Amino acid sequence: MTPSGITQGSGYRSDHTVLVDELKKKLAQAALGGNERSRERHVSRGKLLPRDRVDSLLDQGSPFLELSPLAANGLYDDECPGAGVITGIGRVSGRECVIVANDATVKGGT
């Protein structure tokens, strides 16, 4: 095992906490998908939001490993969470599958 070269000085813990909090905030924001108006319009048309579609596809109670929730982070004035796509690995009918769901609430014309 290679020893770590990270110096855990007095500011390490506080810096780490700030960065983890920032990451959690970005992940939560990306999980929302498009803006509220786009999400409401999508639902009013009788469509499931993409995360709901993924959840309904997966075996009940099985995990979902999302692969790129912060794709396009910081691009397009932060109006393109996850690059408009949810990708990950999940279990469907007992088999591990790669799942891709386009999010029409993100730059999808809704």
Automatic annotation (TrEMBL):
GO terms for cellular component: methylcrotonoyl-CoA carboxylase complex. SUPFAM superfamilies: ClpP/crotonase. PANTHER family: ACETYL, PROPIONYL, PYRUVATE, AND GLUTACONYL CARBOXYLASE-RELATED, METHYLCROTONOYL-COA CARBOXYLASE BETA CHAIN, MITOCHONDRIAL. Signal peptide: none annotated. This is Methylcrotonoyl-CoA carboxylase. Residues 16-110 form the CoA carboxyltransferase N-terminal domain. GO terms for biological process: L-leucine catabolic process. It comes from Rhodococcus erythropolis. One of its GO terms (molecular function) is methylcrotonoyl-CoA carboxylase activity. InterPro entries: AcCoA_carboxyl_beta (IPR034733), ClpP/crotonase-like_dom_sf (IPR029045), COA_CT_N (IPR011762), MCCB/AccD1-like (IPR045190).
